[in-house]
Amino acid sequence: MPTTRTASTHWEGTLFEGAGKVTLDSSGLGTFDVNWPSRAEEANGKTSPEELIAAAHSSCFSMAFSNGLAKNETPATSLDTSAAVDFTPGTGITGIKITVRGVVEGLDNDKFVALAEEAKAGCPVSQALAAVPITLDAALA
């Protein structure tokens, strides 16, 4: 049975002059401001869809990699993962770079990289960004 997590956004105004608030509904952890300049220029204390994707991807990858290392009987002491999502106005998301540094006893760098590649391929967020169908339910209020 799947687990569903939700977030929602209330937006007012046009793309360039408007603004919105994205709420992490499932966790209740907060509501964050979002607008076009924070997406296409400087963040200025606001988030963006790409930053939220980066957060999802870095945490999902870390979980997948941690699991792969444990299955290899070389559990990580620590993993530090970042994801950088490139966004080009008018084009969209043009790339994602995952960077990971780990402390893992009994593992050489080549095996670390190979297991990281497996985690990247097996991470559900990586898979979702590659090929999951997106459904839409749209209606006027």
What does this structure look like?
It contains 4 helices and 5 strands, in the order E-E-E-H-H-E-E-H-H. The chain has helices spanning 36-40, 49-71, 109-122, 124-131; strands at residues 8-12, 19-24, 30-34, 76-88, 92-104. Strand 1 and strand 2 (19-24) form a beta hairpin. Helix 2 packs across helix 3. The longest helix is centred in the middle third of the chain and has 23 residues, at 49-71. The chain is elongated, with a radius of gyration of 18 Å. The mean pLDDT is 89.
What labels would you give this structure?
two-stranded antiparallel ribbon, 4 helices, 141 residues, 35% helix, alpha+beta, 3-stranded antiparallel beta sheet, elongated
- Distance between termini? 31 Å
Q: What is the count of helical runs? A: 4
- Report low-confidence residues grouped into runs of 5 or more: none
Radius of gyration from the alpha-carbon trace, in angstroms? 18 Å
SSE order, as H and E?
Answer: EEEHHEEHH
The largest beta-sheet arranges its strands as 1-2-3
Reported for the largest beta sheet, the result is: 3 strands, antiparallel
Structural classification: alpha+beta
> Helical content, roughly?
25-40%
What is the residue-averaged pLDDT? 89
Number of strands: 5
Classify the beta-strand content into a percent band.
25-35%
Sum up the overall morphology in one term: elongated
